[in-house]
Write a structure and sequence with these properties.
Radius of gyration: 22 Å
Low-confidence stretches: none
Strand content: 5-15%
Strand order of the largest sheet: 1-3-2-4-6-5-10-11-9-7-8
CATH class of the largest domain: Alpha Beta
CATH topology of the largest domain: Amidase signature (AS) enzymes
Number of domains: 2
CATH architecture of the largest domain: Alpha-Beta Complex
Distance between the termini: 24 Å
Length: about 475
């Protein structure tokens, strides 16, 4: 029996029926990582001892006839900007290369309560800044669907690990599309929850008003299971909210009104991607859903607005990496003796941060500086409000919104890394969701060649269940 191509429920059934043990399941995935990850490079740290010790506890519970949760014994990977107590947490940066997390993030506490098996920490663009996983200080992750292509970013390691069957599911974080875009590129499911529904406590911050943790899985059902386990109000995160119970009427595809924004089918978009997305929308229409063209008029300003807000918040958040409190420090360097405290700051940050992180810090610092704050950061926040209003108005007419995740399939390694603006345009269809704080799902709906294409399903605030149910319809259709 191949233990490394199971869904969460299949693995759970296998465990409770004693078809295999949690130890065998853990070893199956750890062996797969040893063999496969040399070419994929999805993992930065493998926590073999932790996974096997967690597996032993599950096997002991099963031997005693105790009930276990659906996530108990499930091998899971964690993006390396989410803290796991006692495990290295680098955020893909040299400045945190030896940092050992002193506590668990809230999502990790919740998953440990469910008794998951933590296989290790996955690669990412440094401090989650990037769309290709090429900005990591440590390694270059490859797309399992085509090793010459990027897996997407910044949660590229998590998406690649799920797609290559090196784990059953994974956690990522999404600031401007960092769960949805790699899920799209690797052909897996990725959910960016409503802002505040999942605690950010223990997530290494990039842009605090945009960051959100979410699941990357093989199926919609798995996505729902992981999301249900990690959501909920947390007193340690002041932006955290209780997910209100939305009284959705009995779900019927015939009652569903799907909005398709005209601004998301733009000139320059890959024609094959457009065909795949429109074909998926057509399938929903044939099942009885009503397709309504909508407008999100401020979409054209979203990219500039996002990069102004996110870099400003990154500039403030990353000020803590000064070589004094923790992390990499040039104060100990034998090559360059720092003459004073300012030298320690400057040399540490120069050597510790990669070029993309430094670019964004400089842009954000400039936007927040005296004389420019009103013109850039404050104005961007006003535009953000207009983008939120666009969605509010659209959702008066429709239940969900359908659009592409990315204007292209996964691109070749090194194709865009030298042109930051070209790279930033990869996020053009995902960033508005973060600015508006909405939930959105990336669902694989077809391929161009051997490269997967993802449909983005956007919902109203706290409407994760509805967008997951909507995605499940397509998934079930494909299995018939």
């Amino acid at each position: 029996m191949n233990l490394t191509n199971l869904t969460i429920n299949q693995a759970h059934q296998g465990l409770i029926k004693k078809q295999f043990s949690a130890n065998e399941l853990a070893r199956g995935y750890l062996d797969k990582i040893k063999k496969k990850d040399k070419e994929i490079c999805a993992f930065l740290t493998v926590t073999e001892e932790l996974a096997l010790s967690q597996a032993k506890k599950i096997d002991d519970l099963i031997a005693k006839g105790k009930e276990i949760s659906v996530l108990a014994g499930i091998p899971l990977a964690i993006k390396d900007n989410i803290l796991v107590d006692g495990v290295k947490s680098t955020a893909g940066s040299k400045i945190l290369q030896d940092y050992i997390a002193p506590y668990d993030a809230t999502v990790i506490k919740k998953l440990k309560q469910e008794k998951v098996l933590i296989l290790g920490k996955t690669n990412l663009d440094e401090f989650a800044m990037g769309s290709s996983c090429e900005n990591s200080a440590f390694k270059l992750t490859k797309n399992p669907c085509d090793l010459s292509c990027v897996p997407g970013g910044s949660s590229g390691g998590s998406a690649a690990a799920v797609a290559s069957d090196e784990c059953i599911c994974a956690l990522g974080s999404d600031t401007g599309g960092s769960i949805r875009q790699p899920a799209c590129f690797c052909g897996v499911v990725g959910l960016k929850p409503t802002y505040g529904v999942v605690s950010r406590y223990g997530l290494i911050a990039f842009a605090s008003s945009l960051d959100q943790i979410g699941p990357i899985t093989k199926t919609i059902e798995d996505c729902q299971i992981v999301f249900d386990a990690i959501k909920g109000k947390d007193l340690l995160d002041s932006t955290s909210v209780e997910n209100p119970k939305i009284q959705n009427t009995e779900y019927k595809i015939q009652n569903l009104k799907i909005g398709v924004p005209k601004e998301y089918f733009i000139k320059g978009m890959d024609t094959e991607v457009e065909k795949v997305i429109k074909s998926a929308i057509k399938k929903y229409e044939k099942l009885g859903a009503k397709i309504i063209e909508i407008s999100l008029p401020h979409t054209e300003y979203a990219l500039a607005c996002y990069y102004m807000i996110s870099t400003s918040e990154a500039s403030a958040n990353l000020a803590r990496y000064d070589g004094i409190r923790y992390g990499y420090s040039e104060a100990k360097s034998e090559k360059r003796k720092a003459k004073n405290l300012l030298d320690v700051y400057l040399q540490t940050r120069e050597q510790g941060f990669g070029s993309e992180v430094k670019r964004r810090i400089m842009l954000g610092t400039y936007a927040l500086s005296a004389g420019y704050y009103d013109a850039y950061y404050k104005r961007s926040q006003k535009v953000r409000t207009l983008i939120q209003k666009d969605f509010e108005n659209a959702f008066k007419r429709v239940d969900v919104i359908f659009c592409p995740v990315s204007p292209t399939p996964a691109f070749k390694i090194a194709e865009k890394i030298a042109d930051p603006l070209k790279m930033y345009l990869s996020d053009i269809f995902t960033i508005s969701v973060n600015l508006a704080g909405l939930p959105a799902l990336s669902l694989p709906v077809g391929k161009v060649g051997n490269l997967p294409i993802g449909l983005q399903i956007i919902g109203k605030p706290f409407d994760e269940d509805k967008i997951l149910q909507t995605g499940l319809i397509f998934e079930n259709l494909c299995q018939k």
